[in-house]
Amino acid sequence: MIIAIDGPAASGKGTLGKRLAAHYGLRHLDTGLIYRAVAKALIDAGQPLDREDEAAAAARRLDPAQLDDPLLKTDTIGRAASQISVFPAVRAALVAFQRDFARQPPGAVLDGRDIGTVICPDAEVKIFVIADPRVRAQRRYRELVARGEAADEGAVLADIEARDARDRNRTLAPLKPAPDAHALDTSALDIDAAVAAAIAIVERRRAAAH
Ligand code: C5P
Fold first, then answer.
1. Mean pLDDT, the chain, integer
2. Neighbours of 77 (CB within 10 A)
3. Nearest Cα residue to atom 16 of ligand 1
4. Contacts of 66 (CB under 8 A, 6+ apart)
5. Sheet of 182-185: strands edge to edge?
6. pLDDT tens across 2-59, in order?
7. Cβ of 163 less than 6 Å from ligand 1
8. Which atom, in ligand 1's list, is nearest to the CA of 98?
9. Does the C-beta of 140 come closer than 6 Å to ligand 1?
10. What is the per-residue pLDDT for 150?
């Protein structure tokens, strides 16, 4: 089984993906980490973020072992990831890795922006996670504070809104629900309630498929 989870920044899709994967015994790939790893490789090498050819070369050199780096989670890297993810050559270089991951048994949960639309259009279950931007900003702010990063809630909200706009308005693989995706609004749900709602969606889809 392949489960595709898409949604905007800080919507909780990463945690949801991890928990769903554990529940169903599937592998999990947070595809945001891939774009973050490419952005960080460029920054570490002192290369600019606005050169498609250099960003695509970094994407082709992606080493999956880099995806465990805790430094990928910072907001600076998230912003940089959203800049390089607009380049078609970068996205093209990362498609095969994601599809190979999804195809391997026993199946996988992938979360990102274009999983249900581009990477795994045949996924058995597609979930599009949404949440009020203010709720997402509050969650992200708490996460940053818990990690000991300096944060300002207003700045976090502005950053989330800028990232949403860039991800939604890009021409290639924009953030949008697949026609057959199930919307899951987590604004008023804590993580356990969101996981329960996602499992209910998966179970309904499986029942309908039989
Ligand atoms: O989900 P996360 O915040 O880690 O993603 C970082 C950035 O990577 C996003 O803002 C988006 O621009 C990009 N991304 C993407 N496609 C994906 C996953 C992430 O374009 N499937």
1. 95
2. 20
3. 113
4. 37, 40, 41, 72
5. 27-30, 108-112, 2-6, 125-130, 182-185
6. 999 999 988 999 999 999 999 999 999 999 999 999 999 999 999 999 999 999 999 9
7. yes
8. 21
9. no
10. 82
Per-residue pLDDT tens digits for 152-165: 999 999 999 998 99
Residue 152, judged by CB atoms within 10 A of its CB (0-12, 13-18, 19+), counts as exposed
C-alpha span between 10 and 49 (Å, rounded): 22
| Nearest Cα to Cα of residue 9 among 129, 107, 98, 119 | 129
Rounded to whole angstroms, the Cα distance separating 62 from 58 reads 6
- Sign (positive/negative) of CA torsion 96, 98, 101, 106? negative
Chain length of the chain: 210
The pair of three-digit structure tokens given for residue 138, joined into one six-digit string = 């509050």
Q: In angstroms, rounded to a whole number, what is the distance separating the alpha carbons of residues 194 and 189? A: 6
